[in-house]
Amino acid sequence: MTRLPPILVLTVIGAIAAFSVMRVHFSANLYEMMPEDLPEVQGMDRLNRYFSRDGQLIVTVKADEGFAAGEAIASLSSHLSGHEDLVAEVFRELTLTELVRDGGGLLAWLWLNATEGKIDALGERLAPGQSTAEIAIAMESIQSGFFDQDVVIRSYDPLGISRFGDLLGGGTGPDPMSSGDGTFQVMYVEGNGVDFSDYRDAAKWIKRMKEVVAIWESEWREAHAGDSPVTVGLTGTPAFMAEVGAKMERDMSLSVFSTMVLIALLFWIMHRQSKPLSWIISAMLAILAITLSLGGAVFGDLSVMSAGFAAILMGLAVDYGIVIYREAMDSGGDARTLRKNVGPSIFWAAATTAVVFFSLNLSSLPGLAEMGNLVAMGVVVGALVMLYGFAPVAVSFVRETAPAPERLNLSGSGLTRRTAGLFAWLVPLLALVSIFAKEMPGLEINFHPFRIRESPSMVAWQTLQKELRGRENAVPTVITGKSLPELLANLAAAEKRIEGALQSGLLSDAVLPTVFIPHPGNQKRNAALVGQWLGEEERLLTEIHAAGFSDEGTALTATTFAAWQTYLAELEENSYAAPVGKLAAWSIDRLFASKDGTYAALATVKPTRPLDRAWVTAVSNDNTAVASLASLGTALNERIRSDVVRVFLPMIAILSLMLIFVFRSWRDLVLSLFSLLFVASVMVLATVWTPMSWNSFNICGLPLLFGTGLDFAIHMIFALRRNGGDVAAARRGIGKALLFCGSSSAIGFGSLATASAYGLASLGLVCAVGILVNMLVAVFLMPRWYRWMHRLGD
Amino acid sequence: MISFPRLLLLSGFLLLAAATMTKAQSAPDMEVVERWLGSNSGANSLKIDFSQTRTMSSLKVPVRQQGTLWLDYGNNRFRWQTGAPAQTIVVSQGRNILILRTPMKRYEIRPAGSGGAPGMAALANGFPRNLGDFQRKYRVIEIRSQSNTHRIVARPLGSGGKGVSSFTFVVEASKYRLLGIEIDLEDGSSVNTTFSRVQSNAAMPSVLFKPDLTGYSETKF
C-alpha cells in the first residue's frame, strides 16, 4: 500500500479546511442570537432594520472650543467629500445660509402635515392686512430688538413660517448634530461603491476611510500646531459590522490555530511522536471541514456564536483520537479489534455529548442553539472519522513504530481510598456551607454577552450618546404598522401608554415623532388652505420686499411656497406627499421609515430605572418595541434562570435514562451522576470565592460541562470494568488519555477566553475550569470511588 | 578673528532669539487685552451710550439705532435699551431676561442665553473683568494695530459663538478705552457698535432694572 507522507495529507486536508472556513459566511446580526419574543430584542432588531443605515458612517469631532469643532468638521467634511470613490454624500449641521436655502421644503411639509387647527396660526399671519403687520413687527425687531439668534432668523423669515408655536410639541428632541456648547459635532457619511451587507466589504471600506481621516488629521495638526487637539471618532452600522465581522473571523482563526498548536505541543510532550500527531491534526481538520460544510448547508449564515464552536469541537474530537491511539498502544490488535474495544465508549460518549449539545435547542438564545447543533453534528462526525478513518492509521503506526519512552508516568494507584472518600463528602459540604455563608452566586446584572471588547466604534458611540444633550439613558422605541393608517393608530395608542408611564413615574421623559409622520388626512384637509395661500404668494413677496428685505430675506419664503406647490401636485396623485429637499428628507427619514411593506416610527423614552422591566411592559406591545440594552440584560437573566430548569432538568433526565442503558448498573449510574454533583460543587466554590462569576451567557456552559464530564466518566468506568477495577492499570491506560483529553478540551475552551465577545470569553473561561476539574475527578478520584461502590476493597 | 566655539555659541543664541521671536509673533500679545481690561478694573458699574449699525444680508439697507447699556457689576445685572423714547428694553432677572417692546406693549421672559447671543446680548453679562475671565469667554485670534486703535479679533467660546465668524473689540491705542465692538456673522451680516460715551461708576437705581409692566401682555416674540 502506498504510504502517503503525513505532511502531504496535512497540507491537502488543511487546504480543504481553510477553503471551507473561507466559504462560510458569518452573519454580524447580533439580534438573531437572542430570544426574539423579548420586546428589547424586537426593538433592537426593528431599529436596525428600519432606521439603521447600513452604509451611513457616523463621524464625530470633539474639540475644546465650539468654533474649533465647527471649523474642523467643516474641513473634514470637505476632505471626505473629495473622495468620491468612497463617499457619496455628507450630512452635517447646516449653516444659517444653508438652512435658509434648504429649509423651505421641511417647513412647508410640517405645516401641510399639521394636525387640525394648527395651521390656522400661520394662516392668520399670511392673511391680507395681517401679513404687512407681521412683516413690520419683524422689521422693527431687527432694527431695535435685542440682537440675538432669534432676530437673525427673523430677518430671513419675516412672516414667521418657522414659528411653529406648539405645533411641534416635544417632537424634535435634542440636536442630533451637535452638543449644546458646540464642542462635539457629528456628521453622517454615506458610503459609495460598497456592498454594506457584506461585512468584509464594509471592513475594507472602513479601513480606507480611516486612512483618509488619518491623512486629514495629520494635515490638520500641522496647520493648527499649538492649538488644542481635535479628536475624530468613527461609529455607526458600517463600523460595528466591520468590527464584529473582522473580530469573529479573527477569533475563529486564532482559536482554531492556537488550539491546534497547543494540542500538538501537548501530544508531543506526552508521546514524543509526531506522525500520529499529524494524522490526528488532519483528522481534526477534516472533521472541521465536514462540519462547517454541513453547518453552512443546513443553517446558511453562521452567527458570531458559531465562531466558538470550532474550538470546542477540536477539543472534543481529539479526545476520541487519543483514546483510540492509547488503546492501540496498550492492547495492539487490528482496527476491528480496536473498534470493538473502544468503539462502544466512544460511541456512547459522542451520543451523550451530542444529546447535551442538542439540548441547547431548548435554550432561549437562538445563537447558543445554533452553536450546540454545530458541535453536536461535529462530535458525531468526529467519532465516525476517528473510528473509521484514524483507527486503521493508529494501528499501523503502533505496529511499525517502536514505543517511545513514556514521559508521563501514571503508575501507582494515586490517591488513597480514604483521601478520595474525604474529598467526596468534604467538597459538596463546603459548597453548601459557602452558599449559606456568603450567598448563592447569582447572574451578573447589566451583562451584555455579545458586546465586543476593545471596540473603538462602541467607545465612539457611547461618547456620542453622552455628548449630545439629552441622549444619555434615552431609549429608542420603534412603533410599526402594516399600513400608514395602522401606524398612525398604533402611534396614538403608544402615546397613551407612554403618557400613562410618565404619570406613574416609570418614565421621566418621552419624545414622540407624531408631527414628522406623514398624515394623509391632515395633508388632504390642509391642502385647501395651502392652495389659497399659493394664490397670495406674489402679494406676500412684494410686501416683504417693500418693507426693506432683500432677495436673501425673501428666499426662505419663496422656497417654502415652491415646496407647497410641489406637495399639492403630489397629493393629486398619491395619498400623501413626501418631503422634498435634502434637509427635509433627512429629518423625516430619521423618524419615519417604510420598508418591506411595514411602516415604522421612532420615538424616544427615558426610563427612571432603566434596568427594571416594569416600564418595558408598560410601553411595549406587538407593535411597539423598545431597543433597551439595560433592561435586556435583566430580561436575559430572567430567561436564563428559567432555561436552567427548562434545559437542565430534561437533559439530566434524558442522560440518566441513557446512562442506565449504557451501564446497566445502578452503581455506575450513581457514580457518574455523583461525579457531576462533585464538579458542580467545585464550580460553586470557584464562583463564590474567586472573581469568576456567572452571567446569562456562561451559565449555558453548565450543560456543556456536564456532558463532557460524562464523557470522562464513561471512558473511565468502561476501562475499570475491562480491567476488573484495577486502578493502576486504568490510570496507565485510559488515565493518560483522559489527562490529554481534559487538557486539550481545556485548551480548546480556554482559547475562547481571548475572544472579542464578552459572552464567548466568559464561556470559555468557565468551561476550561470545569473541564479541568472533570479530568482530575475522572483520573484521580473516580477509580477509588468505583472500587468503593463495587465493594472491591482498597 | 572669532574662535569656532564662540561662533557656535553666538549661532546658538541667535537661533534661540529667532525662535523666541517667531513664537512671540505667532501668539497674540495679550498685553493689549490686559491693559484694556485694566482700564475698567475699578468700575463697579458702567453706563455706555452707543450707536449700532446692523448690516444684514437679508435687508436692503443697513439699520442704525442709538441706545444705552447699563452694567451693574456689583449686583450682577444689566439693562439694555434702544431708541428714544425706548423702543426695546432688556433687563436681566436672575437666570432669565425680560424683553419689552414698548410700542407693542408686549413682553417676553426667556432664559438667559437661550437665544444664542451673537450681538450685544453677548455682553449682557458684562465685559470680562480680568484676563482670566476674558480667556474663559473668548479666544483671541489676532491683535492688529490700525489707525490709533488696537483691534482684538476674537471668537466667543461656548454657545455664544454659534453663528459668529469674529468678535472684534476696538480699543483706543493710547488710553486703552473700549471704543466699540464689531461682530461678523457667518451669513455675511455684521453688527458694529460704537461707544459714544462710557461712564464708570454711574448711578444704578434699582428702578432701572424693574421696568413697570402695567398694560403689557406676555407673549413670545
Structural description of this entry:
- The complex is a heterodimer of chains A (794) and B (221).
- With 794 residues, chain A is of the alpha+beta class.
- Chain A has 3 domains: 6-27 and 248-447 and 631-789, no CATH class; 53-93 and 177-235, Multidrug efflux transporter AcrB pore domain (Alpha-Beta Plaits, 2-Layer Sandwich), CATH 3.30.70.1430; 96-174 and 474-609, no CATH class.
- Chain A has helices spanning 6-23, 39-51, 66-81, 96-102, 104-112, 120-126, 130-144, 149-156, 199-223, 237-271, 275-299, 306-331, 335-358, 366-400, 417-437, 456-467, 484-503, 520-534, 537-546, 551-573, 582-589, 614-619, 629-663, 666-689, 701-722, 727-750, 758-789, and strands at residues 56-62, 87-92, 184-191, 231-235, 475-481, 507-511, 592-595, 598-607, 624-626.
- In chain A, strand 7 (592-595) and strand 8 form a beta hairpin.
- The longest helix of chain A is centred in the first third of the chain and has 35 residues, at 237-271.
- The radius of gyration of chain A is 34 Å and the shape is elongated.
- Chain B has 221 residues and is α+β, with helices and mostly antiparallel strands.
- Chain B has one domain: Lipoprotein localisation LolA/LolB/LppX (outer membrane lipoprotein receptor (LolB), chain A, Clam), CATH 2.50.20.10.
- Chain B is 18% helix and 42% strand.
- Chain B is built from 3 helices and 12 strands, in the order ααββββββαββββββ.
- Chain B has helices at 4-26, 31-39, 131-137; strands at residues 45-55, 63-72, 77-82, 88-93, 96-101, 106-111, 138-146, 149-156, 164-172, 178-185, 190-200, 217-218.
- Chain B has a 12-stranded mixed β-sheet.
- Chain A binds chain B through residues 65-67, 95-97, 100, 137, 140-152, 155-156, 165, 180-182, 226, 548-550, 552-553, and chain B through 26-27, 52, 54, 56-61, 63, 65, 80, 82-83, 87-88, 90, 97, 99, 101, 103-104, 115-121, 139, 155-159, 161-164, 185-189, 191, 220-221.
Fold topology:
The complex is a heterodimer of chains A (794) and B (221).
Chain A: H1 6-23, H2 39-51, E1 56-62, H3 66-81, E2 87-92, H4 96-102, H5 104-112, H6 120-126, H7 130-144, H8 149-156, E3 184-191, H9 199-223, E4 231-235, H10 237-271, H11 275-299, H12 306-331, H13 335-358, H14 366-400, H15 417-437, H16 456-467, E5 475-481, H17 484-503, E6 507-511, H18 520-534, H19 537-546, H20 551-573, H21 582-589, E7 592-595, E8 598-607, H22 614-619, E9 624-626, H23 629-663, H24 666-689, H25 701-722, H26 727-750, H27 758-789
Antiparallel strand pairs in A: 1-3, 1-4, 2-3, 5-8, 5-9, 6-8, 7-8
Helix pairs in contact in A: 1-11, 3-9, 5-20, 5-21, 7-8, 9-10, 10-12, 10-26, 11-12, 11-14, 12-13, 12-14, 12-26, 13-14, 13-23, 13-25, 15-24, 15-27, 18-20, 19-20, 23-24, 24-25, 24-27, 25-26, 25-27, 26-27
Chain B: H1 4-26, H2 31-39, E1 45-55, E2 63-72, E3 77-82, E4 88-93, E5 96-101, E6 106-111, H3 131-137, E7 138-146, E8 149-156, E9 164-172, E10 178-185, E11 190-200, E12 217-218
Parallel strand pairs in B: 6-12
Antiparallel strand pairs in B: 1-2, 1-11, 2-3, 3-4, 4-5, 5-6, 7-8, 8-9, 9-10, 10-11
